[in-house]
Write a structure and sequence with these properties.
The complex is a heterodimer of chains A (about 425) and B (about 280). Chain A is of the alpha/beta class. Chain A is built from twelve helices and 22 strands. Chain A has three domains: about 50 residues, Alpha-Beta Plaits, CATH 3.30.70.20; about 180 residues, Rossmann fold, CATH 3.40.50; about 130 residues, TPP-binding domain (Rossmann fold), CATH 3.40.50.1220. In chain A, the strands form six sheets. Chain A has a seven-stranded parallel beta sheet with strand order 11-15-10-5-8-9-16, with helices on both faces. In chain A, strands 19-18-20-21-22 form a five-stranded parallel beta sheet. Chain A has a three-stranded antiparallel beta sheet with strand order 12-13-14. Chain A is flat, with a radius of gyration of 25 Å. With about 280 residues, chain B is an alpha/beta fold. Chain B is built from seven helices and 15 strands. Chain B is globular, with a radius of gyration of 24 Å. In chain B, about 55% of the residues are buried. Classes of the chains: A alpha/beta (about 425), B alpha/beta (about 280).
Chain lengths: ~425, ~280
């Protein structure tokens, strides 16, 4: 263990493990830690060897061998802080044009799992106008109860109007967990509620579970540009809020025979919207490609950044009844529209077959496609991350591989269709 | 009229690498940049002041070296820059960050009324998109996220008209000032700094505010004021790779052996894909 010139045992940072999160900087009582070149650095002469930094480091990057007294939070403290009063898993049921978003049902499905582990129930939080049928649907997907805020003011979504209403609902109902779909609406809404409730919010989780000892929600999300995963806790504030992207969790089975309680929630203080929507321009549905619904995706990466070859990629996609998607660099270069982007800042996809062409496989891209059933990589670098994880890889120049692939597929396709017909 | 842009120093995520031996992130030595979405916000803010008057202030909460990013914003036309930096603010999550930034904006507002706050729609390191809405909520400003175009300002009526992107549609919205906008890349890339701009940026004084200057409550900022804490950090579980066909041993052979294996091993999936395809064609 390192010592300073006074012979005092001090902490030391392993720069290879440090993620530069600054938690130790905030924790250090003597201010001896600074961030330099992206990682924490301890000034040996100032360090008092208290070990507080070790406790908060999520990456195990601080070396310190001395035993540290761990502060144990007693259950009584929770009761005192009012946390024990929060019960149940709540799910925001997102409605658009009179239809519930699939992500809400995916979260109800996950919510059931969490509720089972927490020994509690699942509640739907439904805001809208004339949404009775959706409340019934929520129960058939797994809610035990649905709180309904029905008002003509909720016809169209406005962040502050919905935010204020759901904040009030949370204050009254006191759920211990509150899940919201990370759609553009959900991402706009969640922070408004969390800020008003002064609680923690973890965005875009790819994994949710319950800590078996502490019974806390374990929220796992990609961070640092998606290169690493972090599991986040919200210990002393409730509800524990999390948003989850569409398609991350499986759609639960609908059971029309399920029963539950529909509770109209009295809410009169609808706040002023402060905005006026002058016009809504729907995207041209003929040109609109929803890559999240494609069974096959031909995904263009930085290694195939040449628009003059796009036609053959379109042809490959069309041959398999799929569509063309891309990774972030293509959007940044203005070659393909944002709606086609797969990844952390784009869409989460789960096609039956994913064909990555010149996609290197940065984790921020991978988190958006890890649900794909089968993955094929076409890449000229056999060390590319995508090749390491793909079920099938071809190493070579895509400009030559793709036409060959099209030729080969054309030769095989009539074959498989007859086989399909025979089955 | 003062426009405040909140910017963030982020690691250049395109440079971040994974140590293959330990499968962990190598953060050391990675260059820091200004979050690209925030630069779009600065450009849009400067354009607004060029048309309607007023000034652009950029603020960032971060370590002292974030001064570099503030000077970049000054070179692109921002009028003043404030570095919010203090040990007491370190380790903040989005709730504590929005508290601190909102406190800084309030302090700016006392000097010159803040009508517009602009943020990038998200930062490329955390990707949370929470800080902007958090600031709007704390300040009671009208919230407009995913803004792709600023159509106009009506100073008389105290309104702003913007285009914002939602799923499969765009909205044209007129909103009451003061507003908080988070912006999309479509709003337009930042200009290139001019030589006089660069010189101005180098010479310009950067104000440094700590928790004391902002009269922040200690319990509400930094690690203490953060309800969320990172329990563990780990590398994502690896997906195991399958057969690799190298075209250097013959293009025709590689592609055909791949397709043979694919059609044989994944017969069920291929059949499903292609039968769906025929349905589409027949429809």
């Amino acid at each position: 263990m390192p010592k300073n010139s006074e012979g005092k045992d001090i902490a030391e940072v392993n720069p290879k493990k440090c993620s530069g999160c600054q938690a130790c900087v905030g924790e250090c009582p003597v201010g001896c830690i600074d961030i330099e070149d992206g990682v924490a650095k301890i000034t040996a002469e100032k360090c008092i060897g208290c070990g507080k930094c070790v406790m908060v480091c999520p990456s195990d990057a601080i070396l310190f061998d001395k035993p540290i007294k761990k502060k144990v939070v007693k259950p009584a403290e929770f009761v005192e802080s009012g946390i024990a009063a929060y019960k149940g898993v709540a799910v925001f049921i997102e409605v658009k044009d009179g239809v519930a978003a699939d992500v809400s049902w995916e979260l109800v499905g996950k919510g059931r799992e969490l509720a089972h582990k927490l020994n509690t129930n699942v509640m739907g939080f439904l805001v809208g106008h004339n949404v009775k049928s959706i409340a019934a649907e929520a129960i058939s997907y797994g809610c035990d109860s649905v709180y309904v805020l029905d008002n003509s003011a909720f016809e169209t979504y406005v962040s502050r109007v919905y935010g204020a209403a759901l904040t009030e609902l949370c204050r009254q109902v006191k759920p211990e967990v509150f899940l919201i779909g990370a759609s553009s609406l959900g991402r706009d809404l969640s922070s408004v509620i969390a800020t008003q409730l002064q609680t923690g919010l973890t965005a875009d989780c790819t994994g949710l579970d319950v800590d078996p000892q502490e019974k806390l929600l374990m929220m796992t999300r990609p961070t640092f540009g998606g290169n690493i995963m972090a599991t986040i806790y919200c210990r002393n504030h409730r509800p524990q809020m999390s948003t989850v992207r569409p398609k991350v969790f499986k759609m639960p089975k609908r059971d029309p025979a399920r029963t539950g309680e529909i509770i109209p929630f009295k809410y009169d203080n609808v706040v002023e919207p402060l905005i006026e929507i002058l016009e809504t321009i729907k995207m041209d549905t003929a040109n609109l490609v929803d890559i999240t619904h494609s069974q096959v995706l031909v995904v263009v990466g930085k290694g195939a950044c040449d628009s003059k070859n796009f036609q053959m990629l379109e042809e490959l996609a069309a041959l398999l009844g799929g569509s063309v998607a891309c990774s972030r660099p293509l959007v940044e270069a203005g070659l393909l529209p944002y709606v086609r982007q797969v990844g952390q800042t784009g869409k989460t996809v789960a096609p039956k077959l994913y064909i990555g062409i010149g996609v290197s496989g940065a984790v921020q891209h991978m988190v958006g496609m890890q649900g794909s059933e089968k993955v094929m990589a076409i890449n000229n670098d056999k060390n590319a991350q995508m090749v390491q994880v793909a079920d099938y890889s071809i190493i070579g120049d895509y400009v030559k591989v793709v036409p060959e692939l099209i030729k080969g597929l054309k030769a095989r396709i009539p074959n498989i269709q007859t086989q399909g017909a025979q089955q | 009229m003062q426009i405040v842009c909140c910017v963030k120093q982020v690691p250049d995520t395109t440079q971040v690498k994974i140590d293959p031996a330990t499968n962990t992130l190598v953060r050391a030595g990675v260059e820091s940049i200004c979050n690209p979405y925030d630069l779009v916000a600065v450009e849009a803010a400067v354009k607004i002041t060029e048309k309607y008057g007023g000034s652009v202030s950029v603020i960032t909460m971060g370590i002292p070296s974030a001064e570099v990013q503030l000077r970049e914003c000054l070179s692109l036309g921002a009028h003043q820059a404030i570095l919010v930096s203090d040990r007491a603010l370190a380790g903040a999550d989005t709730l504590a960050t929005s508290y601190t930034l909102a406190s800084a904006i309030q302090k700016l507002n006392e000097i010159d009324p803040v009508q517009i706050v602009m943020c990038g729609k998200q930062a490329i390191d955390g990707d949370t998109a929470q800080t902007g809405p958090g600031i709007a909520t704390r300040l009671g400003f009208t919230q407009l996220t995913y803004v792709s175009q600023i159509i106009g300002l009506d100073i008389q009526k105290q309104t702003i008209t913007v285009r914002r992107e939602i799923e499969n549609a765009s909205q044209i919205i007129e909103a009451k000032l003061p507003v908080m906008l988070t912006v999309e890349l479509e709003l337009g890339a930042a200009r290139y700094a001019t030589l006089p701009g660069l010189i101005k940026a180098i010479k310009h004084e950067i104000k440094v505010w700590g928790a004391k200057e902002l009269s922040c409550t200690a319990e509400k900022c930094g690690l203490k004021g953060s309800p969320t804490s990172v329990k563990t950090i780990f590398a994502p579980p690896p997906r195991k790779g399958g057969p690799v066909y190298d075209t250097t041993e013959g293009m025709d052979q590689a592609v055909n052996s791949l397709l043979d294996t694919l059609f044989q091993k994944e017969a069920a999936i291929m059949s499903e894909i292609l039968s769906n395809d025929s349905k589409v064609k027949n429809a």
